[in-house]
Fold this protein.
Amino acid sequence: MNILITIFTILTVVFSSDLTLVNDMFSNKKYIEADELIKSLITKDSTNPSFYEVASKINLKLDDLLLANKNITKAIELDPSNEEYRVFWNKLNDIRSKLNDAQKSFENGFIDESINAYEKIVVEYSEFALGYYNFGLIYYRIDDFDNAVYNFKKALLHNPFNDKYKQSITNIAAKLTQKGNDEYRRSDYESAIKFYAKAVEYDPTFSESRFKIALIKNKLSDYEGAKLILLDNIFYDKKHVQSFKLLGDVYMKLGKLDSSIIYYEKSVEINSNYDKGYYALGKAYYSSSNYEQALKAFQDAVQVNNTYSKAYESIGSIYMIKENYLLAIENYKLSIENNPKSFQSHSKIASSYNFLKNYGEAKKFAKSSIDIKSKNASAYYELGIAEKGLGNKVAAKAAFENAAKDKKWRKIAKYELTLIEKGL
């Protein structure tokens, strides 16, 4: 008998200690940990009414009214004379009743009445997250997003463990972003920015809206403004690959090649299948005359996307610099294969053939480039070189005269015309 009493005393002390720990967790708002521990205590001893009472209070904090009611009912069943349990049961019943009445008012079209009812609920039960959430839903349904977000944030403050509160804010940010996208497609950038900015105000972690603002600023040549927004965006979202890539673009336009390379490299580090990131990285290396790194980046781009015409064209350009004209031609052909309308690739392949003195092929591709784009000085220049090489001086002169109409090509085209005049 003494042994049984001793065991019972030990268990009582252990459970009492654990319950104290649960209460400490509850006081420190560690509701998830408290919930796990109280469940384990109930599993070990399903006859202790105080366990169910604490469980019910935790359930209320986690906005599970059904489970809160079930547990406090069980506590009363185990200890019918406990007045505190009945007071708490009445509180739960009052909350349920008032929530139902407020919701019915809204469903019946009495919106003001519903709002008044919820205002009273959140005043009387000021730490009840579900009350704020339901209140927020009413405002959401009448498109009053300011008040909806205010109440969702209050719900999140009191219960950060329920994902739907944060998700509700994000949903509004997404909705506003879509409205911004509609304005963007209409080229109404001012209205678009207002929607995007509001989305960011509601949810600073919603990176897509902030990115779209930067996109507009970049489009409007406000590169410093775009840069600041993008730096802010990657602070919130360190995996937003488009922000890193656009930041690289912005630094390129600001003339800061080293910085652009850093952000382009980060974009492909985040997404190793990001063909546009590799291409942009290649262009940056090309601009800094680092042709080996540029070549590698362009090759990575076509490895990821074997139909990337511009990347093949850029590979061809690097082989032209290396005077490897056969490899240049091979890549220009791949560029044309994937984009037959690429007049630049037609013109550049003509240039490669001219260097190889294969004037017949050069003439063919120069003319096809002109067919695609009639005002194409580079193609006319290559056509002039090809015609000259084939001995067609009249045709060569006509081609160079067309090339000379373009300011960029005027000097070199006139030089060739001078040579023709001299019979050279």
User: Anything to note?
Assistant: The longest helix spans residues 2-27. Confidence is low (pLDDT under 50) at residues 1-14. The CA atoms of residues 41 and 217 lie 58 Å apart.
